[in-house]
Amino acid sequence: MQFGDSREGDAFVHSDRFQSVKTAAYEHLLSRIEELGAEFGRWTRAAIQEFVDIEVAGFVRLRRVAINEAEMRLVSESLTKELAGLGPLEDLLSDPAVEDVLINGYDNVFVSRAGVLAREQLRFSDNQHVLRIVRRILAPLGRRLDESCPMVDARLPDGGRLNVVIEPLAVDGPMVSIRKFRQDPLKPADLLTLGTFDESIYALLGAAVRARCNILVSGGTSSGKTSLLNALAFFVPERERVVTIEDTAELSLNHPHVVRLESRQGGFDGGGAVTIRELIRNSLRMRPDRVVVGEVRGAEVMDMMQAMNTGHEGSMATIHANSARECLYRIEMLAGFAGYQGSEDSLRRQIASALDFIVQVGRLSNGKRRVLSITEVTGMGDNVIATQELYRHETVSTPEGEERDRWVSLGIHPHTPKLAKFRDEMRASNAGAPSDDGGGGGGFWGRRR
Question: Which residues does the annotated region (Disordered) include (predicted)?
């Protein structure tokens, strides 16, 4: 027997009746599993599914539970996920459209799809149910989560990231944040198709990476920094050796010669910790052509600047900041936290000589992720780091009321000598191209999306 309408099945799964039947059947299964002992641990998922089907059918018959065959099948499927998988999270984690899963207590679950966060009907039985699933995820990772260690940050086997905070730090039950990452990283052409940037920016970023420009990708949380950094790696020549350094390994560079390093948290007594700063210092002894830091957030900023200034050109990193100028201020602030002893002028000269471009990314109100600006760091002037904005994102409305993305070029060519060839090509391209907006600048530098 099947539900005439799948919505009937959904309504049952999200009902209190389903939760009560499932909880009672789960207790029954646990008693049967206890009788089986170690034998149950050797069963395949198919064997567990068959066992659950038989036991749930027997439970419903003996207890005279008023559910039909289709509802009983839904209970069996859910319990199989509980015993052999990740319970209510299993379907979400296997859904390629899901980007983030956020659990704020057992009955308050939010899911992000295409950059838009929405409440999910999915729920757990109680907070202990959430903890049971989380500990099942953490068990093979060797990470601890209890009252003495109520906060954990871990990398999942599929490359995702798990963060959990429990009582006494979390007031309203377990706070679980799961960030998923694509198994097949987006290529620059994919981002172009998705509208993250236009052809002009595609050409500039490709030329900048191949010419070994140092690039900082700046933006807020979930703005697409890591995805863009992954995409930029497609432009790195195959003959080069790339070392990636991260707090929690998230980067998945599509490159034949990548060395991945990940920091390590300290043990219960704080010993054994290995910081990103130590990894950057060690990476310079590993003969890297480029160093890629997943996120600069602390004292490691000075070591990153040193690497960019001492022969490791073409290095890249991400940083949390709301604009290119704020990004520079943040670097100065982090250098101060790192105990930098030199003068303000000396620090700014180091930053100016290390960085070539700051790519600002952001998530718009409609959930779309876009490159908001590309700013070139050109040097020092009047004790201030001099910059020039090459592109700026704008949203325009058509007469039909449709919103369109547009990247405005200010008609300025890149200043860095590394892009001399690219600059000459653009000038040659513009020389014979008519202006498309009447304001000067055609060809690559005047295109609009």
Answer: 427-449
Q: Give 260's Cβ-side CA count (13 Å radius).
A: 11
> How many Å is the Cα radius of gyration of the chain?
27
- CA dihedral sign of residues 304, 305, 311, 314: positive
Whether residue 316 is predicted with pLDDT greater than 80 in this model: the reply is yes
Q: What is the CATH number of domain 85-180?
A: 3.30.450.90
d(CA 69, CA 60) in angstroms, rounded, equals 10
Environment class of 169 (CB within 10 Å of its CB; exposed 0-12, middle 13-18, buried 19+): exposed
Q: What is the mean pLDDT of residues 306-334?
A: 92
Structure tokens at 62: 């003996």
Q: Which residues make beta-bridge pairs with 291?
A: 243
CA angle, 13 as apex, 34 and 6 as ends, to 5°?
130
Helix axes 324-337, 344-354, angle to 10 degrees: 120
Instruction: Give the distance from CA 14 to its chain's centroid.
Output: 30
The answer to whether 228 and 359 are in contact (CB under 8 A) is yes
Where would I find the beta strands (DSSP E) of 339-431? 357-363, 369-381, 384-397, 403-409
Q: How many CB atoms neighbour CB 4 within 10 A?
A: 9
End-to-end CA distance of the chain: 53
- For 280, the enclosing helix (H) or strand (E) is helix 276-283
The answer to whether the pTM exceeds 0.85 is no
Check pLDDT > 60 for residue 237: yes
Core vs surface per residue 228-246: b (16+ CB within 10 A) or e: bbbbbbbbbeeeeebbbbb
Least confident of 4-13, 244-253, 417-426: 4-13
Is the four-CA dihedral 113, 118, 122, 127 of positive or negative sign?
positive
Pick the CATH number of 186-429 from 3.40.50.11260, 3.40.50.300, 3.90.1150.10, 3.10.129.10: 3.40.50.300
pLDDT band at 402 (very low <50, low <70, confident <90, very high): confident
Q: Residue 215 pLDDT > 90, yes or no?
A: yes
| Amino acid residing at 358 | I
Question: What's the confidence (pLDDT) of residue 196?
Answer: 94
Tell me the domain boundaries of the chain: 6-83, 85-180, 186-429
